[in-house]
Amino acid sequence: MSKEILEIENVSVKFGEAMILKNISFNVHEKEIVGIIGPNGCGKTTLLNAISGFVPLESGTISYNGQDIMGLPPYKRAQLGIGRSFQHAGIFRDLSVEDNIVIGLEKAEKYPWYWMFTPKYRRKTANIVKDSLEEVDLLAHRKSLAGILSGGQIRLLELARLKLFHGNILLIDEPTAGVAPVLREQLAAIIKKLNREHDFAIVVIEHNLKFLFDLVDKVVVLVDGEKYMEGKPEDIQKDKRLQEIYFGGSV
Amino acid sequence: MGYFLTQLARLAESTITAIGSHLTIAVGNIFFLGGSTMFCFGAYALAVSQKFGLDPWWAALLSIVFSFFVSFLFVLAYIKLSNDSFAVFTLSSMLAFEALVKSWDDVTGGILGIAGILRPDNLVKLKQLVIFQIILMVILLFIEFVILKTVLGRSLLGMRESRNFVEALGTSTKRTGSVAIIICCVLAAMAGVTGVWRIQFLDASFGSIAMLVQSVTIAILAAKPQVRWLMLSAVFVTFLPEFLRFTPLPSTMIGHLRILIYSVLLIVVLLTISKKLMPQKRFI
Predict the structure, then answer these.
(1) pLDDT at A246
(2) Nearest by CB to A92, which of B152, B165, B171?
(3) Would you call B157 and A92 a contact, using CB atoms and an 8 Å cutoff?
(4) What ipTM does this complex have?
(5) Is B220 helix (H, G, I), strand (E, B) or coil?
(6) In which domain, by residue range, is B195 found?
């Protein structure tokens, strides 16, 4: 069994009087892809926000590589190696496509502040940007504002930036939201590549169940802020009660 | 010639102050309104140092060093307070500073102010001072241009849209915002130093609300994170009220009308074009 890199134990999150997450526990192993599913409002994104440090926990613990990360702000968790993509794509629409890669690269590679005045760094950056954008077919848009890209292209750009991340886990929130069906296969291929070639463990939230079941090793089902079940995709699909109460009869 | 030089000097002073506001408000979306406080602080630190016999250049240096340290008060507030409370805190800092200089007669001269502030030997003539101010303005604009190309600039630009997105990349938005606030404070103090050398007199009315409204208007009008927009905005806002001089209005009214024009302009800018120029805030 590979090493556990993320341990979530009895995590509860409260907003005002409302309990959004109740005693959620699961683990993520090295190079594993874990899918999180559940009806709207069941707390999927809140769970990722809790892992990233954007929402405080009411109770429970979160450990990353054996280290308790509860007291760390989001940027420290990112520096430790927890990468994140967002439901509405964490791309800066007012920056150019190229700058969206560079803003991730200069942090990931710990560039000095004066790097842009140094030919060595400029060459290195130009090559990485070119390779990253080529891989997601966005090289032609290099100088355009990211805001003019389509929903699918924005997702591709976000994943291209995540690839540069120096860590071993990525939290990806609804990668196919607002993406044309034709681009979904490309997105799935990139996520698989991030996992297989770049050795990232991935926690992915997704409503498109076919997309998710083809991708993941394990599924965690949340219902009303509680973990309903956890298991392999094929086991989840077989669960009769789940089909009835959540999938409306069949998957 | 004197009028022309004075206008150029005003342009340089308001542009230098607005560079900081541009970095914080327009680029980083940090509603820092303490620029005019630091403009006055820089001027007072210089005037008081000179009053105690320090050479003008050394006094200027001391003023900037003091301003750097005082800026940490704003940094502390930025780290501890919510966005809205921080804006109110920075705004009220100006009123607090004004009350302090009015009441601390021994050092600041109270409501009578400090007269006879000397210019450095090599900037005695107004023309020399204005050339110095313009050169300083160009250098500082270039520095802002460079900052916008650095990690700091890109992080600030990212913060305009979402602090969470920036944090998720491993950048501390508190540290980034703090650096922008310190730069803003130091630049405002520099503008205050050159401003007080120009008029050679200082009282509690120096800077105050007029400078605040003017620099914020310039920064918001230049909402695009580009230095050329800031320069265009500074020229427009500084020279706009000058048409009043060609009207038969008494000169005492012109000062008040200038503030009125800036305020109306600020409201118009906020209600109309700022929404189109500033990016939409994004949530996770």
Answers:
(1) 60
(2) B165
(3) yes
(4) 0.90
(5) helix
(6) 2-277
